[in-house]
Design a protein that fits this description.
Residues 1-21 form the signal peptide. By secondary structure, the chain is mainly alpha-helical. 46% of the residues lie in helices and 6% in strands.
């Protein structure tokens, strides 16, 4: 079975086009007993990454994505599972500029100090705050101040 990079909105759009009624939206079905991997046909990806991308898509009900994320986390899916670029769901939320998703993931145990392990030299070794700094420099047209405040509040709370 061929595996595609996860966390991409294109994958969700592909799955939308072939939707069928299942326990999951978009015609997806669980590919493992805990529901940590979802797929449709020969396309599959990590539940946390697919639903992180879906949450950030304005055409997808955010509440539904959060419900599936909650279910996956309750089943023991790895909140730090990396996609093909080495991004965790938290780092994907930073990329998508999705403060609500980042807050949800932090509340459920995502560790922003965990370094990215990536084949991309520019990403490899960065933690979430440094990844956010890179995004701010490379995409100054996107206002990521809410994400910055969120990471700072999280760091301050952990120091107490």
């Amino acid at each position: 079975m061929r595996r595609y990079p996860v966390g991409l909105l294109g994958l969700c759009l592909l799955l939308c086009a072939t939707a069928a009624a299942t326990d999951y939206p978009l015609g997806l079905s669980a590919r493992d007993e805990r529901g940590c991997r979802l797929g449709h046909g020969s396309v599959e990806g990590a539940t946390l990454h697919l639903m992180s991308a879906a949450h950030s898509d304005p055409g997808f009900p955010a509440g539904q994505a959060l419900a599936i994320l909650r279910r996956a986390l309750a089943a023991g899916c790895d909140i730090h599972e990396a996609d093909a670029l080495g991004l965790s769901p938290l780092n994907a939320a930073l990329l998508y500029n999705d403060a609500a998703l980042a807050a949800f993931l932090l509340e459920h145990g995502a560790d922003p100090a965990r370094p990215i392990v990536s084949p991309k030299a520019a990403l490899n070794g960065l933690d979430s705050p440094r990844w956010l700094t890179l995004l701010e420099r490379r995409q100054p047209q996107h206002d990521r101040r809410a994400l910055r405040r969120l990471l700072e509040r999280h760091a301050a709370a952990r120091q107490r």
